[in-house]
TrEMBL record:
All residue ranges annotated as the GST C-terminal domain in the record: 91-219
Signal peptide interval: none
InterPro entries, A to Z: Glutathione-S-Trfase_C-like, Glutathione-S-Trfase_C_sf, Glutathione_S-Trfase, Glutathione_S-Trfase_N, Thioredoxin-like_sf
Name used for this protein in its record: Glutathione S-transferase family protein
Domain GST N-terminal positions: 9-88
Source organism of this protein record: Sphingomonas kaistensis
Amino acid sequence: MTKPIITAFDWVPDFAKGQVRDFRVRWALEEVGQPYEVRYLSQGEQKGPEHRARQPFGQVPTYEEDGLTLFESGAIVHHIATKWPGLMPADASGQALATEWMFAALNTVEPPISELAYVDIFEADKPWAKPRRPSVEERISSRLKDVAKRLGDQQWFAGDFLAGDLLMVSVLRIIEDDPLLAEHPTLVAYVKRGTDRPAFRRAIDAQMAGFTGSPPPGFAEWEAKLKAAACN
Ligand SMILES: N[C@@H](CCC(=O)N[C@@H](CS)C(=O)NCC(=O)O)C(=O)O
């Protein structure tokens, strides 16, 4: 088999470094010990026809392997976890339980956390951004409470470190420095266990090393506008 090829950006703003979703795929590949190659896209290239043929929404990451092309980081991580040993148990019930936590991470926990990025960054200049933050925080808090309760004093959600943990840690680390997560020391410790894994470190280093490109035209003006809004 030839090495799988993933897509990633050659430049993102500082706040996104280490968080772009190809990271989750890199981490999964590192966990199972599968080398891969990266096709880098400059900002804007993701919306062109060539990339849209791989990814209908014009986003990264994608994954290509021997004629198979996939998009959606969750689906790609699931594919990696079922193809190589390391992130999924061998039995069907164990697989279902690991998959359950993949969906919980992406479908139930990540959506309110993603809203924070709109309030704090992407739409920070909108008049409703600041007044909206408390309700976003409330939704995140409620989810974190339930996640912490279910984790209890377990190390991981379904026995060993599995694909569900890989995605849950990826999602929770988005708010790693936010007081919302600090309210749950067991979740802080859970994220630390995940991010202390050697495969995590290799994946972060690889993503960071790939940022060799330049910002798209107009980025400096956009950033200045947001900074001005943040000071109001
Ligand atoms: N649900 C998708 C989301 C992918 C996504 O949001 N990708 C972002 C980077 S993290 C992107 O490519 N944004 C650029 C754009 O939308 O133009 C996945 O998990 O693969």
